[in-house]
């Protein structure tokens, strides 16, 4: 198993009076795609937001390549090479696709080679480069959201439900983009409810319930064990 690029150790996060994360322990091995699975409302999004510093852990350690970032400001976490794709996409509707991308590049101007690679992965972003992001289709907005995280090479991507509500052809485009990222050596922590996508992309799996990780292992093991899927998530990956 490769060294972890990210480890959470005993992370507790409160939102208002709610104890949402209740001692999350998880690791993301370098160069792997780690799926974060679990029923609705168990704390997957809160886990990503806590890593990114949008919510602050009350307790616990968040180690990025061994450095504790639990108290690090979010912009510094981004500059340390963590890209975040939020569930609500986080794009600026009134700005053009280009302006959205320029704002997402945290270390300097956009590298033209990187931009051309993104155009090859998501061709509509080239077509609509000067258009307002608010006028894009739902799938194109999701492409822009992922492209914003990809505009600079990151060590770790935190991606929240990138295929939610999308048509199958666009889901394939997303899956291809994530595979290309991985092929470049990036590590990815991915929340994904579409199990055929999860199965196709995931190397490792962490399953959450009630604010904790209740199972971790290899995707091949979970995908091949219907009883385990049922026990962990009340769902079957069979036939997905
Ligand atoms: N801003 C908030 N205020 C109050 N409660 C919140 C807030 N954000 C999340 N929660 C609660 O925290 C719990 C975990 O939410 P979270 O979004 O992390 O779950 P999730 O596993 O990502 O779920 P889903 O799959 O539905 O997105 C839920 O009970 C949710 O209602």
UniProtKB/TrEMBL annotation:
GO molecular function: ATP binding; ATP hydrolysis activity; branched-chain amino acid transmembrane transporter activity
Gene Ontology biological process terms in this record: L-amino acid transport
Top-level taxon in the UniProt lineage: Bacteria
SUPFAM superfamilies linked: P-loop containing nucleoside triphosphate hydrolases
Keyword Transport part of the UniProt annotation: yes
Family classification: Belongs to the ABC transporter superfamily.
Protein name in UniProt: ABC transporter ATP-binding protein
Organism: Rhodosalinus halophilus
